[in-house]
From TrEMBL:
Keyword Glycosyltransferase belongs to the record: yes
Keyword Transport part of the UniProt annotation: no
EC numbers on record: 2.4.1.50
A molecular function (GO) term: procollagen galactosyltransferase activity
Family assignment from sequence similarity: Belongs to the glycosyltransferase 25 family.
Region feature (Disordered): 395-431
Broad class of enzyme this protein falls into: transferase
UniProt biased composition (Acidic residues): 396-413
Domain Glycosyl transferase family residue range list: 171-354
Pfam family, one: Glyco_transf_25
Keywords linked to the UniProt accession: Glycosyltransferase, Transferase
Name of protein: GLT25D
Amino acid sequence: MHAFATQPLADFGPIIAPQLNVTTDSLYSNFWCGINEHGYYERTADYEPIVRWKKRGCFEVPMVHSAYLIDMRHAGSRKLSFDVPPPEYQGPFDDIIQFAFSAKYSGMTMHILNTEYFGHIMIPLDGKNTLEDEVEQFLHIKLEMLVYEPPLRKSPFIHVPERKPDKLGFDQVYVINLVRRPERRIKMIATLKELGIDAYFLDAVDGKSLNESYLKQLGVKQLPGYADPYHGRDMTMGEIGCFLSHYLIWKDIKENGYKRIIVFEDDVRFEPFFRQKLDKVVYEADYVVEDWDLIYIGRKRLYREPEPEVEGTSMLIWPNYSYWTLSYMITYNGVQKLLDADPLSKMIPVDEFIPIMFDRHPESEWKAYFFPRNLIGMSVEPLLVYPTHYTGEPDYISDTEDSTLINDDEESEETKLPTAGLNVESPKVEL
């Protein structure tokens, strides 16, 4: 919070609060942009741009709470109160609302400062919540901090027992990580440890280590007529490496006879109460749908059209055309369907291939190369994982987009990946 240290408090206002969010995606923060005459919240057009940092600066608002600084030299500070309402106050019996009205009555303005990232705030719980709910909320704050900071340091004065790791009820949990992205591996190791998840890290196939001659050995051929929907280009080596990484996992599932597994890419963040929500999703999938093949845990919706709910469930929908393979659950039967499609001989990006296989892809010419398209694919709604960074944000990296195209036939000095690397019996890199 060095912004306060470099400027006098009077430059901001008599009451100034640093903006604190639950997560970067949440709209809950420690201020209101609108408040009606009775003291109740009103949404305004300014709120979302401020809370999502689309507008940055110091803004006058009618309410701040939970963390703020007060200029006690201001004469009005003597009239501030949490429990004694100002004259003619008719609002609710609420401490933060009464404080806001007392500030207004005393002539003190409130301001929110969002010039930089200041930290997180927890959602206040009510009487229906338990201590375990509070623990889960605090765990989420820790996970969000791990997205931006190195592993957190433990206090030598407090003992917190570590959660015994498990595989979330699956036969295997995979994390896909490029060896040259060790910072992502470190963060995922710390995150999974906090969540109590026992996972195998798969060394991803690196597009920078691939070339045309090696792909010919593997039988990799781009789908005839494929062109990236946005850029009109061929596949990149990074996209091929990404596909082969998921393909390795599918092969491993089949060879080990796993009934079901879950996959995470290494650039994901987890929603609050992740484990509890995932348990509910698995229950609904098993006892309502029964014969499911693949369920997205994280993805990117491409169309605004409504996606029908899976009848009898509260957390599952039938997805339309989607991008990204941030995380998904898949069964042995689902893997068999994907492998039977012989995808290496007519390759497209993996996030194009999967929607084709559950017949929700808009390109009919591409779909014609794959039959039957009978993958039973669903999605969690709302999603349980999101990307750590979006395109254009600071620290955003794309190893699929930022690489050479498939028809650049230059030999790479880094090409040391043996053919056996795609016939591996099991990626035995254990967390």
